[in-house]
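A quick aside before the break. I want you to see a complete sequence-to-structure record at least once, exactly as it would be stored in a machine-readable document. Don't worry about memorizing anything.
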Amino acid sequence: MPDLQRENANLRRILEIARQMATTTDLDALLGMIVEAACEVLDCERATIFLYDPQRDELYSRVARGVEEIRFPADRGIAGQAARQRCCINVRDAYADCRFNPEIDRKTGYRTCNLLALPLENIRGDLIGVLQALNKRGGCFDGADEELARALSAQAGVALDRGRLLEEYAEKQRMQRDLDIAREIQQGLFPRRNPLIAGYELAGWNRPADETGGDAYDFVSLDDGRLAVLLADATGHGIGAALVVAQCRALLRAMLSVTTDLRVVAARVNRLLSEDLTANRFVTAFLGVLDPHSHRLEYVAGGQGPLLMVSPRGVESRPASELPFAVAPEISYDPPEQFDFEPGSTLALLTDGFYEAVNPADEQFGEARVAAFLRQRGTMPLDRLVAELYAEVQRFTQGRPQADDLTAVLIRRDSGQR
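That is the input. The structure line, written in tokens, reads:
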């Protein structure tokens, strides 16, 4: 009669645990709850839940009573066999069983005498993990313990599957919120409006490949009426590239507040970025200063090209004038090169996402198509021009996902200016 009372009490406890598991959304709390319940109803010293990692085909303990996290191949030890065979394994003498892996005991300093291992499955029968109970108090695990463990593991497997799905969903939501904030911050760094300069039309445009991008553009008004123009493209795209290009923009702005000597600005920014960035990261950048009175733009193009000047006489293409920033810490910069703006001429600065966009045949959009487009439609308003260029790239790629960030800066001198 006492055994029946104890069995009924244990079943009631399992039902209570099942009710609690159904209302628990925190995975760590759920794991701890199952471990405590196993120790209580099975009257054992310790219990461990090994979760299954299908990507690495490993079992790992996220919660264990008295030990740190453990991770091992999913076919090792008694836990691995319970996972593979999907059955309850009752071991009365652990060290006499060839399947037992004593490595965990050596790591923890704990000695396993007997153990009970059961697979944890979700409602579809997929492996979630393994529940392992260690060292039954006052003897070995018996058939009644196995039945209790099966009842507990059946509830635990479904609850853990639900808990993991909720945790993954919550993590994705958190990451999305973080990315949304990062995107909002990055978009806030772009100029709110295009600058107004007598005799000129300017436009900046950006469309990242991810929530955040590795491209940037900027306009900085100088005290003498000139305008600094920046176009930058950090290697890669996404949050890492966004951080790099934001740093580059901030350094360029800081240096322009001290000097407008482009050789000095470029050398200092290059040195600082070289100190901070790893060897596989660099920034291609165009930094120019437009003088609307002399109709001349001096520039340093560190790895940024081609630079396309569209005039009534055709399209002039120039390559980058210097190495990208952070390729080498010490670069001796040549005097800035320059563009002279004829009436009606347009300078088009585009990041390589435009040129390297590919269609289903893996053919790149290329410089020739960009130049032809600008030559044919070069008189339309700049905001509309860059929007139609983007649409042309989309038609060319035929629905393929955008692989790289797209950024454009366009500068046009009015055709009526002399």
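Two observations worth writing down. The first strand starts at residue 44 and ends at 53. The two ends are 109 Å apart (CA to CA). We'll return to this after the break.
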